[in-house]
Specification:
Blueprint (H helix, E strand, L loop, with lengths): L7 E7 L5 E8 L8 H15 L4 E7 L3 H9 L3 E5 L2 E10 L7
Parallel strand pairs: 2-3
Antiparallel strand pairs: 1-2, 3-5, 4-5
Amino acid sequence: MLRGMLIAVATVAADPADRRGEVAICIREDRKHRGVGWEFLGYIAHYADDHGIETLESIKSRENRAAIELEREMGLTVAMVPDDPTLVLVQRKLGATLAN
């Protein structure tokens, strides 16, 4: 049993105007693929929406296919980063379009 063991960390940092928030989620390798990322991303999306953040975004390595697919399933769009082909920008507009 893993009592008291930290398995994941999530954060959102907003710009001064609270228009855009960058999300970061880190999960212990042995706890991935168990729904933790899905729950954290959903929680952060609702938290950001409740605090008036208009757009949630994250920059990812193109190689992080599992995280990118999870974010697509959660309604984020994926776009290339123009100056770096190894990265993608994932974004989601919040507000009225936020799904439960």
